[in-house]
Design a protein that fits this description.
The structure holds two protein chains of two kinds. In chain A, 50% of the residues lie in helices and 20% in strands. Chain A is α+β, with helices and mostly antiparallel strands. Chain A folds into three domains: 6-46 and 355-519, Multidrug efflux transporter AcrB transmembrane domain (Multidrug efflux transporter AcrB transmembrane fold), CATH 1.20.1640.10; 58-148, Gyrase A, domain 2 (2-Layer Sandwich), CATH 3.30.1360; 202-351, 2-Layer Sandwich (Gyrase A, domain 2), CATH 3.30.1360. A six-stranded mixed sheet of chain A has the order 11-10-16-15-9-12. Chain A has a four-stranded antiparallel sheet with strand order 7-8-2-18. Chain B folds into two domains: 18-47 and 137-298, Multidrug efflux transporter AcrB transmembrane fold (Up-down Bundle), CATH 1.20.1640; 54-132, 2-Layer Sandwich (Alpha-Beta Plaits), CATH 3.30.70. In chain B, helix 1 (22-44) packs across helix 6, helix 5 (134-162) packs antiparallel against helix 6 and helix 7 runs parallel beside helix 10. Chain B has helices at residues 22-44, 49-52, 67-76, 103-120, 134-162, 165-189, 195-225, 231-241, 243-263, 266-298; strands at residues 54-60, 84-87, 89-97, 125-132. Chain B contains ten helices and four strands. Classes of the chains: A alpha+beta, B alpha+beta. At the A-B interface, strand 18, helix 9, helix 10, helix 11 and helix 12 of A face helix 4, strand 4, helix 5, helix 7 and helix 9 of B. Strand 18 (345-353) of chain A pairs antiparallel with strand 4 (125-132) of chain B.
């Protein structure tokens, strides 16, 4: 127990040295750019910044899916001349209700609808259930598993688009991660007022180019003709409502670029855009066939503008004007460049901390840590003398190794995490107190110094192991299940328990053994 | 101080009859815990926005803050406040706003209030904004409870595995009593109960477990050493033997946390005060609650081997 081979002693000191080296990047800056220089990351609560938890609007996802399902149902029934009484979406029940005019055609209808079901869900499950009812109606019900898969993929796609939009704003080092099935976390270091970014992320920015239906009459209360919808004109675009065909001629997904600029003649702010080859061709075809008519540029169910087509636009590029200001033109350009979100995102949790407050927290935390540390060192020296100083040395190394491990794991240090460090200091000291008390006890029972040390360490170790293991396990669980501050706290405690076990068990023992070999005392000063 | 210890926290051969006070200890604990449970229901915990939803803003002004003006501004925006209070120093104000019916409504309120405050109060700076929607807050609450429950189960399982079931039950019952008292402390001090407080309670849990395991470990060892000693005396002996360690550790942890409570800043000092309370409760409950429970549960069960031999040689290592 008290004998260390040279190799073992070297290994223990080596680990300590490694800890020291790994913790260095936190105090000195990287000498050359580009080399790995792992440091502890400061949480947003310490460095200042904004944390946004955003949720995919599943209602919108479901509505969109049901709308397209109605469309494809209509198309599937047309060739067989299967007529229906009702075809309506029931978003609450996540299904479409189809009531046939002639119940006898049930089998034909089912056969026609079957190709709509695709088996692309997990384990090849169907994404749609066709449920024939007794009264000649069919329920087309979306399967929960497929909906979940859809929401997961919506989140995945959103992450990419959110990143592109945020990159455009020049925020340094944003972090965007998925959380659960329908959420994503956006972390924006250094952002004091996330309003602009929230605005940017608050729009799906789905742009479509469609034809205006000139023949439809806009009478209040009257339902629009089939295939046509009434949309609101954007402020600055003339106001009022306008009848627009539902059919999308060119989709915003076909845009390759969009830039804000000014119109050479009027000096108004506009957004210049470019289509890819597919979009350019379709845009050319549409404009060629409809010279003199109006087309609508629709963004998120609002018409930005509805200009008349003067001539065929074949160059694959165009210009949107709609009473923009410099800000709104730039914002639209950013949104169009980054692409549309698959579904609307809502902020469900926001935590923003100014850098000033973060710096205050760091200062307060550091002062408390230092004061606590000094208290503990004085206590140990006072009550345990030399063995207390051994413990204190271990305590310092424990702190260094914690820093090293946290840097290596790129763990995030938060304010609760700082409290956790303080607490592990207490726990590391506990290990040394247990050892010292035990050695003292063994000596009092009449053992000679070496035997007292041997037994003291061995017995104390069993206790330290049991008491730390219980805490360790419960904090690992906390890390796995906790969120926010709880997690940051659990990280430091878990790491701290690991390092304190090492310092108490290996380093203290090595120090005491070396001291014993060099002094050979008759009595241990515990 | 460099070589020899200056003094001891407690003399070495104390012989306190702790188990004599077991009824009193359990009674005091039961009364306190019962009172805490009553307090939990009435007036109840002061829930932070993490669990109730809502908005908290911290505003820093040039010079002492004008509370009247802040309230007026909020009223002017049609956002009723749930408290405007001094936070830390005179120029920092903490504003709490209720949860809005929808997530979007909460965001609108944040923006509205931010703009209005920055406009109406010269030099006002919003240094912190927390907005938690209703759906998230109930989820956070569930997760917090889940974390607490899982931690307790892990501790129960571990102690059961390493000791006997009496030890595990004794520890977990004591831990639950400790937690109820911490809850009572939160109600009495009106400290806001939020996620950080969950972390604080979990820390108390960890610390208290640590303390109980150390005492239990000694009981387990002594059960092997003194095969005929009555359990009651044996527990007393174990507590006395570990008294220096118990007091030493709780004093160091207490000392380590004290600066955090005093200078840690308004947002973390609540955590530290709860910690300090927990250290006192956790340490005393190891002696006055966990040990008596073990005595009641183990009176005739923990002595499986009744052979009247006292093992004189304390050389055998404790085995799991």
């Amino acid at each position: 127990m008290m004998y260390f081979s040279r190799l073992k002693a070297a290994a223990i000191l080596g680990v300590c040295l490694l800890g020291l080296l790994l913790s260095l990047p936190n105090v000195i800056p990287a000498p050359v750019a580009g080399i790995p220089w792992p440091t502890v990351h400061l949480g947003l609560d310490l460095r200042g910044g904004s944390y946004l938890l955003m949720e995919v609007d599943m209602k919108a996802v479901i509505k969109e899916r049901l709308d397209s399902l109605i469309d494809s149902t209509r198309q599937a029934l047309r060739p067989g001349a299967i007529f229906y009484q009702t075809l309506e979406a029931q978003p609450e029940q996540k299904r479409v209700l189809l009531r046939l005019r002639d119940p006898a055609k049930m089998d034909a209808a089912l056969a026609a609808l079957r190709p709509l079901v695709s088996h692309d869900g997990p384990n090849n499950t169907a994404d749609l259930d066709l449920l024939p009812q007794g009264d000649g109606s069919i329920l087309l019900s979306l399967s929960p598993a497929a909906l979940q898969a859809r929401s997961v993929s919506a989140v995945q796609q959103s992450i990419e688009i959110v990143r592109r939009r945020i990159d455009e704003t020049g925020v340094v080092d944003p972090q965007i991660t998925r959380q659960g099935d329908n959420r994503l976390v956006v972390q924006l270091p250094g952002i004091e007022d996330p309003n602009r970014i929230k605005q940017l992320l608050g729009k799906t920015a789905h742009m479509t180019f469609r034809m205006v239906e000139e023949t439809a009459t806009l009478s209040p209360g009257a339902p629009p003709p089939p295939g046509v919808e009434f949309l609101q004109m954007q402020e600055g675009g003339g106001g009022g409502r306008i009848a627009v065909r539902k059919r999308v001629d060119v989709d915003g997904g076909d845009l390759t670029d969009a830039r804000a600029g000014t119109n050479g003649q009027t000096g108004d702010w506009v957004v210049n855009f470019k289509f890819n080859s597919n979009g350019g061709r379709r845009f050319a075809d549409i404009t060629r066939a409809n010279v003199g008519k109006r087309f609508a540029i629709v963004l998120d169910d609002k018409v930005i503008s509805a200009p008349a087509i003067r001539e065929a636009i074949t160059g694959g590029s165009g210009q949107i004007s709609g009473g923009f200001t410099v800000t709104s033109a730039n914002e639209l350009a950013v949104l169009l460049r980054a692409g549309a979100l698959p579904a609307p995102l809502t902020v469900v949790e926001e935590r923003t901390i100014g850098p000033e407050l973060g710096a205050d927290s760091i200062r307060a935390g550091a002062i408390s840590l230092l004061a606590g540390f000094l208290f503990v060192i004085a206590f140990m020296a006072f009550f345990y003398g030399l063995f207390g100083w051994f413990a204190n040395l271990c305590l310092v190394l424990n702190l260094i190794m914690m820093l090293a491990l946290m840097s290596l794991l790129e763990a995030t240090l938060t304010l609760p995490g700082m409290a956790g460090i303080l607490l592990t200091l207490g726990m590391a000291v506990d290990a040394n107190i247990l050892i010292n008390e035990r050695i003292r006890e063994e000596q009092k029972r009449g053992r000679p110094p070496l035997a007292a040390l041997e037994h003291g360490f061995q017995r104390a170790y069993a206790t330290i192991f049991d008491s730390n293991a219980a805490t360790f396990l419960s904090h690992v669980m906390l890390f796995a299940f906790g969120s926010g501050p709880v997690k940051g706290f659990a990280v430091t405690i878990t790491i701290g328990i690991a390092t304190s076990m090492f310092t108490a068990w290996m380093l203290t023992r090595l120090l005491v053994a070396q001291w014993y070999v060099s002094t050979r005392p008759k009595l241990l000063p515990v | 101080m460099l070589i020899k210890p200056i003094m001891r926290l407690a003399p070495d051969d104390t012989d306190f009859k702790f188990m004599k006070g077991r009824i009193a200890g359990l009674a005091v604990s039961a009364v306190l815990s019962f009172a805490s449970i009553v307090l939990f229901f009435y007036p109840g915990l002061h829930l932070g926005i993490d669990f109730s939803g809502g908005i908290v803003m911290e505003v820093r002004t040039d010079g002492p803050a004008d509370f009247q003006k802040i309230r007026q501004t909020l009223a002017g925006e049609n956002v009723p406040d749930h408290g405007v209070q001094r936070f830390g120093d005179d120029s920092t104000v903490r504003i709490r706003l209720p949860a809005q019916p929808t997530e979007a409504g909460t965001q609108v309120a944040v923006t509205k209030v931010r703009i209005a405050l920055e406009k109406s109060i010269q030099g006002a700076k919003i240094v912190r904004t927390d907005a938690v929607g209703a759906s998230v807050s109930s989820e956070l609450f569930r997760h917090g409870l889940l974390a607490l429950g899982i931690s307790l189960l892990m501790i129960l399982a571990y102690i059961w595995f390493r000791f006997e079931w009496q030890f595990a039950v004794g520890a977990v019952v004591t831990l639950i009593l400790d937690i109820t008292k911490a809850v009572g402390f939160l109600v009495v001090t009106r400290i806001e109960f939020d996620l950080v407080m969950v972390a604080a309670i979990l820390t108390i849990l960890g610390y208290s477990t640590n303390d109980k395991v150390v005492v239990y470990d000694r009981v387990r060892e002594n059960l092997r050493r003194f095969k005929t000693m009555p359990l009651r005396d044996l527990i007393d002996l174990s507590i006395n033997e570990t008294l220096n360690r118990t007091l030493g550790t709780s004093m160091t942890v207490f000392l380590a946390s004290l600066p955090l409570a005093l200078f840690g800043g308004a947002s973390i000092s609540g955590f530290a005060w709860v910690m300090l309370f927990g250290i006192v409760v956790g340490t005393s409950s190891s002696i006055f609650i966990a040990a008596p429970i073990l005595l009641f549960l183990g009176e005739n069960r923990l002595r499986r081997d009744t052979a009247a031999v006292e093992v004189p040689e304390p050389g055998t290592a404790p085995q799991p």
